[in-house]
Amino acid sequence: MMADVDVSEAPRDGWTAFKRGLRGLCPACGQGRIFRALLKTNDNCPACGEELHHHRADDFPAYINIVIVGHIVVPLVLAVEMAYAPPYWLHAALWIPLTLILAFALMHPIKGAVIAWQWATRMHGFDKNAPSDDILLQRPVVTSGKQ
Asked: Which controlled-vocabulary keywords does the entry list (predicted)?
């Protein structure tokens, strides 16, 4: 059994963690990689051992990606349409590849930044002093109506 240790820590620098996450680096040390595969995260930082498995990035990076790519591509599409009125096949040939390239290029940095922000704000288990989430998994025992 582990001894109770006071793990009250200094505040984590959110901006530094965010920049490290954008580069795919550990938010704690800035040396190890967050990702072990395309979008699979390491359970622990290979350099400093910081636990990274607590993250709950889920769909949020995809939503951010859609917003960013949409804010880049849609104004360009509208500007080209208003200025040149090219045929639809040219729109498709230009904007579909650009959209896909931007979306794929931004996936890693956005997910890394979300994980780093969760780490910096001590969300989802990144705070060693927070109560366990296991209490949320417990359900009351339901008995039949007869006693």
From this structure: Membrane, Transmembrane, Transmembrane helix
Residue in the block written with tokens 């931007």: 102
29 occurs within a structural domain: yes
Q: Look at residue 9 in the predicted model and tell me its pLDDT.
A: 67
Contact predicate 121/21, CB 8 Å = no
DSSP 99-116: HHHHHHHHHHHHHHHHHH
Please determine, for residue 14, whether its predicted confidence score (pLDDT) is greater than 70: yes
Q: How many domains does the chain have?
A: 1
Q: Above 70 in pLDDT, residue 127? A: yes
Rounded CA-CA distance 8/31 in Å is 24
Q: Do residues 55 and 118 touch, judged by C-beta distance below 8 A?
A: yes
pLDDT mean over 105-121: 96
* pLDDT band for position 124 (cuts 50, 70, 90): confident
- Asked if residue 6 belongs to a domain, the reply is no
Place of tokens 């680096």: 25
Q: Is-contact 126 118, C-beta < 8 A?
A: yes
